[in-house]
Amino acid sequence: MKILWLVNILLPELSEHLGRTPSVFGGWLTGAMQGIREAGHQLVICTTGSPVGRYEVRGLTYYIVPDDSAEMRAVLDREKPDVVHIYGTEFPQALSMARAADPERLLVTIQGAMTYLQTAVYAGIPEKICRDTWLHKLLRRFHKGGQSMELQKRSYQKRAAIEREVLTRAKYINGGSHWGDVVARSVNPNCTVMSCGLVLRPEFYTELRWDLAVCEKHSIYTLFSYPIKGFHMFLEALRLVVTEYPNTKVYVVSNKLPYRRYTGLKKRIMDLAPDYNWYVQGIVEAYGLQKHLVFLGSLSAKQVRERMLRSHVFVSASSIENQSTSLGEAMILGVPCIASCVGAVQEYIEDGRNGFLYPFSEPYLLADKITTLFTNDELAKQFSENGRARSKSAYDPDQNIQTLLGVYRTMIEKAGK
Question: Which has the least CB within 10 A, 188, 240, 367, 414?
Answer without folding.
Answer: 414
